[in-house]
Known about the structure:
CATH class: Alpha Beta
Strand content: 25-35%
CATH topology: Aminopeptidase
CATH superfamily: Gcn5-related N-acetyltransferase (GNAT)
Amino acid sequence: MVLKRFQLGKPHHFARHVLTRIPQQERMETGKWIGERDQHMLIVSPQIPGPLTASKEIIIKQLYVFPRLDHFDVFNHAREGTKIGSPGHNAPGSIGSIKFDVLPAHLLVHSIQSHYKITGEYAIQPAERKRYAGWRKRAIRKAIELAHQNNRILTITPAAIRKRPHLQADIEKVCRDMRLRIVKRNGFWRIHQIIT
């Protein structure tokens, strides 16, 4: 099946196109998506608009992580166990995603979630979970890079990290590795530029 340009608007179509048509390329951009390989995963991030015209303008975006092409079907099957209308259900084959608002000075993260279940009929097998266990750290790193490339601060809402100690630890580790500072205030985590 040949994908036409207009079909690349959905993240899973874009990811499959990048993985099948241009397997040797490390990075590909369209007007809507940027695909970057990171070891055995593909991170599909949205193009971020330039400065917003109104201070109250909000644009909702989502960054996705996809597996190797031969594991697409495994994660696609796993999405059947997720809620209809959820990010996992809307991006077949994806491992997980970060949902955020683009604001004039911030990328405001609302959720960081996997798109599969670990128990039940549609559970991902332990081998696949282990193989893609680093997806969240890679996605967090990419979200931070997107914010900094677009002169914005990555801000994580309390709802995104509440009662999720493993996620909090992942964010702190990524920030340590990137030599970034986290300012925690009123439950919000703001990730600032490089520590000198």
